[in-house]
Each structure stands twice: as structure tokens, then as C-alpha cells.
Amino acid sequence: QQSMRRSLPLFWFVWLSIRVQGEYMVCCTVILSLSVSLSLSLSLSLFLSLSLSLLSLSSLSLCLCLSSLSPYPSLSLSLSLSLSLLSLSPSLSLSLSLSLSLSLSLSLLSLPLSHTHHHLEQQTEPQQTVVLLPRSPSASKTYFPIPVDCLEDETRIRSADDGKLFREEFNVRTILLLLLSKYYDHSRVVLTQLEGNLCSDYINASYIHLMDCCVPGPKQDTVADFWRMIWEQKTATIVMLTNLKERKEDKCYQYWPDQGCWTYGNVRVAVEDFTVLVDYTIRKFCIQYQASDGTKPSRLVTQLHFTSWPDFGVPFSPIGMLKFLKKVKTVNSSFAGPIVVHCSAGVGRTGTFIVIDGVIDMMHREQKIDVFGFVSKIRDQRSQLVQTDIQYSFIYQALLEYYLYGDTELDVSSLEGHLHKLHNTHAPFDRVGLEEEFKKLTNMRIMKENMRMGNLPANMKKNRVVIMSMRRGQEFTDYINASFIDGYRQKDYFIATQGPLSHTVEDYWRMAWEWKCHSIVMLTELQEREQDKCFQYWPTEDSVTYGDYTVEMKGSTVCDSFSVRDLVLTYGPDKQTRLVRHFHFHGWPEIGIPAEGKGMIDIIASVQRQQQQSGNHPIIVHCSAGAGRTGTFIALSNILERVKAEGLLDVFQTVKSLRMQRPHMVQTVEQYDFCYRVVQDFVDIFSDYANFK
């Protein structure tokens, strides 16, 4: 009510201003009324006053400054408006101006004078406790740079109470942004003007941080300008952070051909190559400018398209984004023009990516991070960069991930030396380097809310490992203790689960049917150390029925370290059938690891061949509990596929990523070491690098 009483006279004054002075006075008064009704801070009032002075409204600006500094803002504000009305309304008679000013002054004075009278009456009363309402973030608040060794503590503090301090920090800068949002001429990208078209030099793009150009995702009517900018800026790398469609909405026009070549304006674009990975796709284009005086020499442009970033959200984990960022830096030549970064609108995801990149560089140069300052700086070059507090919080998560774990990627040529270092370097408490590296994985926190589904009373009896992380699941009867796990090239490529129990076999086959699984990998024996570890869910001969599902044995093959069973799965209600190949690995004890790695390399290769023939639907992988041996198999599958494709490996981040999708994947340091050993065996077997690339 107080805010309304303070603002109503000002809105009345807006109406009067329309009749007298036009849009400048209206604009000033609207800003003034908002600042008073919202009770904005002293610094913001001063800032608005200085801004108004730039519009040559000097008397009004001076009065605003006085109103901000006065101990009685309403009183001084009323006087300032009186003076402003006189100075800005020379056409009005003096008496009319004074009478209007007086009426406005009285209405504004009523609140502070009554408040003062009440305050004098209360001075004789006993002292009472006054409960103040919580203040909104001050636009003048400053956040200082954080030393890198304090980053973990600062991130934990800001994350408390559902990220309240992250929201505060983000909203401080956003208050001013809402009033002053615009695209700035001083940082905009200027195109060469086309003959006969005076407006052809404009594109909605800005230089950011001296190195990048950020731009909205091209539309059909701007795609020619987009490619002209790529050519004129001598750009060699495009970073795309949006999908073409999201939530059934068009987010970006496909500005490249699926195959062959296409011409956009004067730029001819041909697709040379593309590689699809789980989090991003790499496309290589050959572009050529077709000018009136002849065709220019062609150039190679690489597009890195990050596909795991939802609109207005953040990626599931910073691991993929940091890997993507490193790839961008590796691909881009130091002699090339600016990197062009775009999402859909060219502000939210684009700004988040640029901040992560820039602040990581700051960490190396200055041993500190200043997210608040960096965001403020780049918003002076293009407004609204980093759109949401969730994106702002994700920046801190990515920086903390990078600070805690660094770059753990290896070239295969350096693997042998790295293994020697891990087994011979001693860390605190007499741990060797390998144990210290594995300990970082075990220190990962498991979020309790991610385990809620598996811990429901109706589902507890179906679990072997109580701690579960369910990425997908339905309530009660639709629940199965299984998790989707990403592969090297494909999301949800594996289904990690426990060995079926006698009362979960039907659920197990229902899962295989509904997700169109053609490959099952079993890493346990039915009995180990005289204990049942898995129910036999296939027939020894003929067929067996579990609820609506019938499983028929068609044949089996015994290999050196594993056996293969060909099963036919039939869904009873509609009599449809499907071939399922069952790979059963032998020689992996419940405690310990296989004696050698060749058998694991062989079974992984056999499963991959089966997948290529059957359509790359999810692979079911299980041991007894669906964690240790299961996680090790999936980790090795992803690691070896990357070694073949790129000649690179990252055992630490691969296992860490698995554990974020399902806890306890790769349970022991022996299993972790086994991952390294198998990769080394793989490299030794195919010592000629060309053989496995």
C-alpha cells in the first residue's frame, strides 16, 4: 500500500507529461516512478539520474540526485519534481506550474510526514523489536574475484538453500539489464555493404571478448548473411549450441546441406565429412565465395554442434561440455578469424559457453575466477548473455569440475608412461597414484533425490544394490532396477541392470521387448562361491514362458572366453518374435578381475558386430548387482571405441560419467586398473595404429 501511495501521484504526472512534454518527459517519469515504487537502491537512483543527464534533462537529473541523497527522499523528490516541472514546462504559466507542483508535493509528503509523526509518538514507548522484510538483491552489490583454492567452498555456499545465493548474484546484474537492454553498435559485426543496398552491412552479431562472434541461430531469410559473415570474418570454426527443433519449435534453420553442396547467397557450401558422437557432432564444410569478378579460393570450415544442451536448461553434467570446449580449442587454428558461436537466440547458451571458456583462461593466468565481473563485461558487448540463474550456476559447476579434476585425457602413445607413473608415484597415506586417482571417484556425492524411486517400499525387494540412480522409471509395477547409460556415439546405448531374480524375470524380458534389445551381455555365473547370483532366465533347450513372453533356444556357440546363445523372444498377445543374441562371459570372479584382457577385447568386438547388424538398439549388460563388472564392461566398450576413432582415452572421466548415471559403476581399484590394462593390451595387439583406426 505504501508503494502504491508513493507511485500513484507519479503515474498521474505521467499523464500530465503526455499532454505537455511528449515522450522524453514520459520516459523519464516512468523510470522515476518505477524506481520509487520498487524502492530501488541509492546507487541505482544516482545511475538513473546520470543517465537522464545524458538526455540533456539536467534540471530533472540534478533534482533526482538530490532526492537520492536526502534523508527524506519523498520530500526532496517532491521538490525535485516541482523544479523539473518548472524547468521543462516553460509553456505553462507560473501559477499553473506551482499549483500542480504543490498538489504533487502534498500527496508525496503525506506519507513521510505521517511516518515522522508516528515515529515521534513512539519515542516515549518502550523499545520494540522491528521485523524487517527481506531485501531484494541490490543492483549496486559487488562480487569480488574468488581465488581458485576457495572455489569449492564458495560453490558449496552458493549452492545451499536450493541455489539461493546463485540466484541473488545472477539477479543483481539482471535488474539493470531489464531497463537498459539493447544491442550495442560499438561491438556489432559490420558486413561489407552490397552494391545498391544501404542496409546490407547489418547482421545481428556481436564481437565478444575480442575472440568470438555471437549471433542468433540463422533463419531462412538470414542464412545468406550468416555465410557472408563467415567468409568476411575468415572464420574457421562454428560452434552451434542448439538443436534445429526443440520442444516441437523451430530453433534454427539448417544452414548446411545434408550431403553434396548448396549455395546461400554468394557462398557455396559443400559437406566434406561428419562425425556423430554422444554429446556433439563434427561437420566439415568446404566454402567458396562466388563474386562478380570470379570465384575465390575455397576454405575449410569446421562446425562443432553440441546436441546435449536443452533450451533454457543446462547439460546433465559439465563433463561433456568441457570435453566439447577442449575440442573447439583443438580444432580452431590460431591464424583463423573469430570463432562464431550461436544457439537459438544468441544469448543464453552462447553466453554460458563463452563465460566458461573465458574464465578457465582466467584461472590459468591469474589463479582466480570472476564470473560476476566477466558476465558484466560481456553484457556490455551484447545484452542478456547468460539468460537464467540455472545457466549461471552451471558455469560454476563447470569451473569446479575443471579445477578439481583438470584435463585427464591421454594420447595412446603416452599410455604406457602414464601407467608407470600411476603404479610408482606415491601419494599421501602411502597410496600409489592409481589409488589416489580412484579415490577422487569415490568422493563423488550421490544426490539422495536421484535415488528416491528405487527406495520406495514397493520397489525395495527388487534391488540388490539399495543405492540407485534412476534416470528413467515409472511407479511401482513399471519399475525395474535398471539404468540407461550413454555410449561413445549414442545416448542410452546401454541398459545396466542386476541379474534377474526369480520374481523379476518377466520384468526383465518385458524390458528387453519394449526397448527392442537384440544383445544381452552377462558377466556373472549362475552360482559363485556356492551362492546363487542370477536366475537362469533362458531355457537349456526348447522354450520357457514368463508371463506374456516366451523364450526359445535356437542354438549356441562356445568361444575361448565366452559363449553365445541365439534366442527367439515371442510376445504372446500379438505373436510377434525377435532374435536376441546372448553373450555370456566366463572367467570373471565376483571378487577380482579376469586373468587377462584379450577375452574382454574379443567379447566387446563380437557385441559391436551384432549391434551393427541388428540396428544399434540398447544393449542389456548385467552381472549380479549391475554395478562393478557391468560398469567395467561398459567403460571399456566406450574407451576402446574412442581409442579406435580418435587415438585418445580418458579412463577417469569415462568412469566418472558412468557413476553419475548409475552409482558404484566400476566398484574397486582393481577393476579401475583393469580398464587401463585392457586398453594397453588392445594397443599392443594392434601395435600398428592404422589397424585399429
TrEMBL record:
Subcellular location: Cell membrane; Cytoplasm
Record's keyword terms, sorted: Cell membrane, Cytoplasm, Glycoprotein, Hydrolase, Membrane, Phosphoprotein, Protein phosphatase, Repeat, Signal, Transmembrane, Transmembrane helix
Domain Tyrosine specific protein phosphatases: 322-393, 598-673
GO annotations of cellular component type: cytoplasm; plasma membrane
Membrane topology: Single-pass type I membrane protein
Signal peptide: 1-22
Main localisation: membrane
Gene Ontology molecular function: protein tyrosine phosphatase activity
Top EC category: hydrolase
E.C. numbers: 3.1.3.48
UniProt superkingdom: Eukaryota
Domain Tyrosine-protein phosphatase: 184-402, 434-682
Subunit composition and interactions: Monomer. Isoform 2: Homodimer. Can form oligomers. Dimerization is increased by oxidative stress and decreased by EGFR. Isoform 2 interacts with GRB2.
Protein's job: Isoform 1 and isoform 2 act as a negative regulator of FceRI-mediated signal transduction leading to cytokine production and degranulation, most likely by acting at the level of SYK to affect downstream events such as phosphorylation of SLP76 and LAT and mobilization of Ca(2+).
Family to which the UniProt record says this protein belongs: Belongs to the protein-tyrosine phosphatase family. Receptor class 4 subfamily.
Name of the protein in its database record: Receptor-type tyrosine-protein phosphatase epsilon
Lineage, top ranks: Eukaryota, Metazoa, Chordata, Craniata, Vertebrata
